[in-house]
Write a structure and sequence with these properties.
The chain is mainly β. The chain is built from one helix and 15 strands.
Amino acid sequence: MLTWQCDSPARLESVRLLVSDSRLRASGRIIAAADESSEAFSASFEASVEGATAGRLLLRTTTAEDERQISLSRTEDGVWLVDRDGVSRRDEFDGSVTVAVAGAVTFHTLPIRGLGLHRVAGEAEIPVVFVGLPDLAVSLVRATYRTVSITEDRAVIEFTGAGTTSTLVVDADGIVLDHEGVGRRV
């Protein structure tokens, strides 16, 4: 069980991670307070990854006025099935094999572990299926992960996406300890 505290906007993210060499399963919750630019919400998610490829993401959000849910599944032929509010669509998302959820620290672990950037220095630009919170809008973004340094117990990774660059500090297993400006593990 891991928890990240985010200060701006005030948010807690807690996740149960089951990790092996080739699999990762995450079951978590995000609780966010309202601020000047967004409403308060809670979100729960379940995600599974096999090797470097995300298999499925289930995500539910609740606000004072609405409840939403979405399911994203990647098929063996590389097509994503997106089911939101009873409407289904298929999309290749430029060959993306991973997903990210807005403001969720957990999801940086997926590409970092999949690419092995916490063990061997490297850099990769990847397409990512991105899900916004709390609206669950789905889009394709390009993200770059670059290893800055590796020590015995941690690695520093530079992340660039959506026009911003930040630093991620991960432990020896590639799990985020601190995401600069977003959240830190407590």
